[in-house]
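User: For my dataset I need records formatted as: sequence, then structure tokens, nothing else. Please produce one.
Assistant:
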Amino acid sequence: MHNPEYPRAATAAQPAAVDGDRPPAAGKPTAGEPTARRPAAGDLTAGRPAAGDATAGEVLAPYLHARAGDFLRSLRLHAESGADTGGAEEAARALRGAARRISGSLHTFRVLLDSGWADDLRTELAWLSGTLALEHACTSRLVRLMDALSRLSGAGNGTAVPAARAAEGGAHGLTVGAARAGALLERQLTLARTRAHSAALQALGSSRFHAVADAVALLASEVPLGPAGAAPAAEVLHAPAEVVERKLLDAVSVLPLARAAHPYNAEALELAAGETQDAPWHRARQLLRLHRYAQEAVRGDLGPDPVLFDAGRALDRHRDAAEAAAAAATAARTPRIAPATAYALGVLHADQRHEVEAARYAFQQTWQRTAAPVS
């Protein structure tokens, strides 16, 4: 089934990803910024201001100090948000982003740091960001699926079909099952969100969390370095970032980008082929995120590469659509649901797999730009 809105889905501006993985405020790309090229492996820090005689620790520490400051500010805003749900959500998003940046930097630059300290803090930050992300993920997934179900059934736009004609099948049959499918999804995802909210509250009140916050507070003023951290930055800082970059390039090289370049390749739509092959795309997303964080750390005030940021957003969309499709499939396996409900969930699943296809296409188009020279 072809999605008539696929060209729009592939090219239209998209909302922020579930994880809200935006660059730090000081590094946001601005309108009119020239298109950058993706540097070849070993050229990650091309154009970076010379570090002179600075050690690797002296270059890396300010970035970690700043991200620890972001973490602590977000934590304070979250505590002060009170009944302001929007403010609490925004503060939690920023808190997760800071935690991921610190964790990613500890992973990439572990060789320059006290390895035991880095491993312990990275593990705790991964636990925290993962726990806090669950509630927002459930909320975003529910909104995404309900919006898609409304669009597919024609509800809310004046095109809904009277119930007397709905039994004829096709789009009319979808109208019959859409309401029940939506109610089923809302029950399942609301329950998951409630559990995630309880887990987040429990985590934020735990001694484990307070230990993490204390460790980050110390990081805001002091970075425990290993022996390599005292070496000249020009000799040891770039190599760890290049390792992550090479892993990213290897991960992207195994993606079927040639097929993704065709808008209606349909690979992402088949249950056996498409969903099984989501994993390499998810791995590329994770490595691209690590690569972007490494760039932020070593490029300093040059800011993040806007092309890589767009590529990351496309892979975030891929992940969101794939998980939404999985949620629709899970709901469709609920025992004893009506045929019309199962049909609506099947159409919804197919629609989200079309969104997976659109995201792959958008990533392929963006990744092509990484090889283009700066205009």
